[in-house]
Each structure stands twice: as C-alpha cells, then as structure tokens.
Specification:
This protein is an alpha/beta fold and about 650 residues long. The chain folds into three domains: about 300 residues, Glycoside hydrolase/deacetylase (TIM Barrel), CATH 3.20.20; about 210 residues, Spore Coat Polysaccharide Biosynthesis Protein SpsA, Chain A; about 80 residues, no CATH class. It is about 35% helix and about 15% strand. Strands 11, 12, 13, 14, 15, 16, 17, 18 and 19 form a nine-stranded mixed beta sheet that branches. Strands 1, 4, 5, 6, 7, 8, 9 and 10 form an eight-stranded parallel beta sheet that branches.
C-alpha cells in the first residue's frame, strides 16, 4: 500500500496519543459510504467513493464482532442530545444487545420498536454505548445489490441519501453509475432502511440563488415522502406492512461543505428547519458530539482503502484530527464561487413538522400545454422592444410568467414595459438603477438572476432567456416545446437567429449544438443539472458544453427562425464585440490551437480581418493580464477534448 500521511498520523501519532485522553462526553461516529463496488479509482484514497463488497463485508463483520450497535441517524441525534454529558472510558462489557434492536437477523422484516434514549440501559459516568451510524450517499443501486444483503444478515440499519432526479434512471447517473429505482427504495424502506434527501439534482448549493436552494430542499423531500407513502410493488418480506405516511427528516449536503462561510451555513440551517428537516449531515470530518450543529453533522469517509486498522481507528475517534487541517485549507483556498444572493421575497413558511409543499415539475397548464417562464434582461431597447413584446403576447402558448428586467435604461424602455404589463398580468417588470453604461456578460447574468429570483411560480418546466430586440412567429414557443417532447435528452435549444441588416436577413452562423444567447430555452432538469448560468463572458457557451458533458444534447433549430433587429454585438460596435468574444473564449478555457484555427477561419468572414484580429487580441489580452478562467477543470478538459476532436476531424459536439 502506498504511503498515506493521514493514515500514518492516525495510527502512529494520534492513536497512541488519544488512548491516554479521558473522553469528555458521548461521541458517535457516522460512517460515510457512497458506492459498494469493485470499480478501480485513482488519486488520493481520501477522495475515493468506492468500497469493494469484500472490504465492506469485512468492516460490517468487525462492527458485529466488536459489539458495535448500529443505530439510525435520528436515534444518534436524539442520543447525543439527551446523553451528551456522559463521559469516561467505555465499559467493555457493554453489548449492542442491551439496546433495543431495530432489526433482528432471525426476523429481518420485523418492525423496529420506537427508539428513544430512555430505552437505553442506564450508564454510569465511566461508560458509554458503542454506537455507530451507517450512511450511504447518492442512492447507487449497488447498495441494493451489494450492501443491503450484508446489513440484513447482521440486523443493521442504515440511512441512504437520495438525489431524487436520478432515481429510476431518468437521466445519466452520477459518476456513470446506476441508481436505485423507486420500487427498490420502497422495498428497502419496508426492511427498516431509512432515506433522506440529497437534493433533487445534486448541485453545489453554495453560490446558487436562494430560490433554487429552496426548491432543491423542498422538492426532494416531497418526492421521497410521496414515493414512500406508496406500497412497495414487491417487498422482500410479505409480512412487512407499508406505512401510509412517511416524513423525511434528514438531509445530506452534496459536495464539499463550505463551513468557512458562516453566514451561508447559518442561513442554510434555517432553511432546512423551516422545510421540515430535523438534522443534516455534511462532508466535515469527525464524529458527532453534543457541541455539533445539528444541520452540519460530521462524518467519517469510508472506502476500499480503509483496512481494519484504519477502520477501527476511525471508529475510535483517532481520525477526527483531520477536521482541523480540512477547515484551515478551506479558509486558505476559499474557492472563487459567487456568494449566494439574498433570499427571495417568498421564503419557506411551512412549519417544521410538516412537509414542504411544492408543485411537481411535470405539472402543466390547465390546457395540458407545457409551462414555461421567460426572463428578459433589457437596456435601452425603446426602438425594438415592441417587436419582442408583441411576439410573446401573440404566442399560441403563452408563458406562465415573463419577468422583464429593465437594466437601467435611459430611454423609454421602462415606460413601454409598464404599459404592456398593465394589459397582461403575467408580465412582471423590474426596474434597476442606471449604472451609467451597458455591461455585457456578467452584467446580463446579474440582471437575469434578479428576474429569476422574482419568479413567483415554482411548477415551470422550461425557463427562457430572451433578449428584448427580437421578433418571431406566433407558433415559435409551441413548436420549440414540441421538439423537447419528442427528444427527451434535449436540454437546451432555440431557433436559428437571423440579423436584420439594411433590410436583409442574414443567418448568424454557428455550430448546430450552439444556441444563441439571445433566445435560449432550458429544460428544467437540464437547468438544474448544469447549475444555472455562469456570471462571466462566455456563459452562453459554457452552459451548452456542460450540458453535453452531462449527457444532454443542445440544438439550434434551422426550421424555426428568430429575427434579431439589432445584430449580435451591435450595441458594442464591431471591434469591441470581437475583442469581447475573444476574451470570452479565453475565460471559457479554449485550447490555443483551436483558437488559432478559429481566427484563421474568420479571416474570410465579415467583418474581414477586423473580426479575426479582435478575437485574437481579446484572447491574448486575457492571457497576458491573467484574467481568471472558469474554475471547473473537468469542464475545461471536456471542452478542449471536443475542440481537438474537431481539429482532427473526429466526432465532436461541433460535428
């Protein structure tokens, strides 16, 4: 086995040192598993997510043979709350049979008794129960096939955290793995396996809008409760009677936990409590004690690299020292993620003992047509905005809401929007103060997200980013949405954009996978998967590249046309627009060879020479000034790989 500093310090420094320390209170380890499979992994073992079935069986046997009592997460929290003052060394005579069992190996389908710390035998100050909690993130199907048979054999319970959008295989699985089905979830629930929320789409919550975070928390909770309230189609044991009502009380934060952002952590805890959760787990390393925040409980990562020596050391608390360097490194690195915006005007108001109430995503309008919302950041569009207003008002399928963000216009744009909103209640204007100049890229996205936060309905299926200088046919959105219904993998789409120049319509040429930023339609599942839009130049390329990377398709429809009355970049001028595009390509992480090829190709396109030189200058300027690039190595690697495929005539998203 390769040298591991964390293992060495745990076994040969902190382990011997802590054996002489008197315990200061009850401490319960929560073990964090992901996938129980033999898939090989690279990189530092700390980050592995796979535990081989053989290693898992070995670890569970160790728990059983060493008298550990496996309890549920809820029971552990209750125990810490009420027995947290217990201190001293552990009584070696303590056996897990002294605590009411959740499940007997001789009767695997027996319902567990109600657990409460008062059911425990009384302990003196010199002893504490040997309890442990088992959790499994991401809801992989190998829990059902590889982990559960072992747990059932020992009478162990566990908590599985589900990212609900991935259950039943409705989208490509996380890490390319297969996830549980709802039938399997119900079957496992009947066998005393608990389930908690892991959000809907498994996004990094820190940096999202609070409206989006609210949705991720409440919709996932509702989905699990709804599914578990149904009878399992074929339970393992016919004697297990399904409960008619389930309440999900546990939540698991996806990805690394931003513990250094105290304001966010505090706000998140408030949202969790208001949504009806009682406790939550994180990726913070350590065992839980009476001093822990109930909504960011520490856990111990477990994988195939944890042999019995390291496994037992983690159970004994000898690995808890990792929490300190983990916290320090987070504070030093402090990744460049945009801070979350203020909570929307419609905060969660459900009482803590009630499930959150949200509308299912798939719910359509009363006439059965798809539900979509439009957000339009606009500035100084007096000359053209009536074209867009009339086009949307006359659609055969109208949006549920249309939020138009007047981004500090100095002309009559705001007045025109207000006039239309008085005649159409679903048009909602927002007027921002004038910053004194037009701000492309992140300025547009900032205005977009102000409109996004103002959307009052939650049961939309598509969100549209629409410019204010367009016109299109009355059936435009109806036909676009029909194409989404026929291609379930289609995530981002829109019509071909034609610039109106001196009375002529000229097609804006682009790769077929690229949808112009002036008119982009996002399917909600895809929108959730990509995590929204990046507030930087190049956002309208990165969103599509990321969607393709995650298994979605993006497409610009040649048979559906949109007229752009002010051609792309017209507000900035030809040279400034070319420089802006070159800088955007640099921020996106374009491969230099692909960028050079792109500039050479543009020499023969209008505006001759000027456009090519502007692109090259913008790209080079970004490099020389050290402009920060997109902070997503996996995305940049995928983008550059696709670009190299294109250069060498191999299949790519450009083909």
């Amino acid at each position: 086995m390769a040298f591991r500093l964390d293992r060495c310090l745990t076994l040969y420094f902190f382990g011997p040192l802590l054996r002489f320390q008197r315990p200061r209170g009850l401490r319960i380890p929560i073990l964090m598993y992901h996938s129980i499979s033999n898939e090989p992994e690279t990189g530092h073992p700390y980050y592995w997510i796979n535990t081989s079935p053989a290693r898992f069986a070995e670890q569970m046997k160790f728990l059983h043979d060493n008298n550990y009592h496996v309890i549920s997460l809820s029971a552990a929290v209750d125990l810490i709350r009420e027995q947290g003052s217990i201190s001293g060394t552990q009584d070696p005579s303590f056996h897990h049979s002294n605590i009411p069992s959740f499940q007997s190996s001789s009767s695997p389908s027996a319902d567990p008794p109600s657990f409460h710390p008062s059911n425990l035998p009384s302990f003196q100050s010199s002893c504490s129960p040997r309890c442990v909690v088992l959790t499994f993130d991401d809801g992989y199907r190998d829990f059902y096939t590889n982990a559960f048979p072992v747990l059932r054999g020992y009478g162990f319970t566990a908590t599985v955290f589900l990212p609900t959008a991935y259950i039943d295989g409705k989208r490509p699985g996380l890490k390319g793995k297969e996830h549980l089905t709802w039938d399997e979830v119900r079957e496992l629930s009947a066998q005393n396996i608990s389930f908690g929320s892991h959000t809907v789409n498994h996004p990094q919550l820190y940096g999202l809008q609070w409206a989006k975070i609210e949705y991720e928390l409440s919709a996932s909770k509702q989905a699990i409760e709804s599914q578990l309230s149904q009878s399992a189609s074929q339970p393992v044991s016919q004697s297990a009677e399904p409960t008619t009502r389930f309440l999900v009380d546990s939540f698991c934060y996806p990805y690394k936990f931003p513990e250094q952002e105290r304001t966010f952590v505090s706000s998140l805890g408030g949202f969790l409590e208001q949504t009806g959760y009682c406790h939550g787990t994180s990726t913070r390393v350590g065992s839980i004690t009476g001093n822990d925040d109930v909504f960011s409980l520490r856990r111990l990562p477990i994988n195939s690299a944890d042999d019995i020596d390291l496994f037992s050391a983690k159970l004994a608390g000898h690995y808890d020292w990792v929490s300190f360097p983990q916290h320090v490194l987070k504070r030093i690195k402090n990744p460049p993620i945009c801070p979350p915006r203020p909570a929307p005007h419609h905060p969660i108001s459900q009482p803590a003992n009630q499930p959150a109430s949200v509308h299912p995503i798939s719910q359509s309008a009363s006439d059965g047509s798809p539900r979509y919302v439009i957000i339009s950041p606009v500035r100084d569009e007096e000359q053209f905005i009536r074209y867009t207003l009339d086009s949307v008002v006359n659609q055969t399928i109208k949006p549920v809401e249309w939020v138009i963000v007047n981004d500090g216009s100095t002309d009559r744009t705001g007045e025109i929007i207000d006039k239309y909103s008085k005649d159409h209640s679903w048009i909602k204007p927002i007027h921002r103060e004038n910053r004194g100049y037009r701000k492309a890229g992140d300025g547009v996205i900032d205005a977009f997200y102000e409109g996004y936060a103002a959307i009052s309905t939650n049961n939309w299926e598509f969100v549209v980013k629409l410019d204010g200088d367009l016109s299109f046919q009355e059936e435009y959105f109806e036909k676009c949405l029909q194409k989404f219904q026929t291609d379930l993998k289609l995530g981002v789409a829109g019509g071909d954009v034609y610039n109106l120049i001196e009375g002529r319509l000229e097609l804006e040429k682009q790769p077929r996978f690229h949808v112009r930023g002036a008119t982009k339609i996002y399917k909600r599942d895809c929108w959730d998967a990509i995590g929204g839009l990046l507030a930087a130049p190049g956002w309208d390329t990165l969103d599509e590249v990321k969607a393709n990377m995650l298994g979605w398709t993006t497409y610009s429809f040649p048979d559906l046309t949109v007229t752009h009355h002010r051609f792309t970049g017209g507000a900035d001028g030809t040279w400034r627009n070319a420089v802006k595009c070159g800088l955007a390509d640099y921020i996106c992480g374009y491969h230099p060879l692909f960028m050079a090829s792109k500039c050479i190709k543009r020499l023969a396109e209008k505006p001759y020479l000027l456009g090519s030189l502007g692109h090259l200058y913008g790209f080079g300027r970004g490099y020389l000034k050290g402009v920060p690039q997109v902070d997503d190595p996996r995305l940049v690697k995928y983008l550059r790989g696709q670009q190299m495929n294109r250069l060498f005539l191999r299949p790519s998203i450009w083909a």
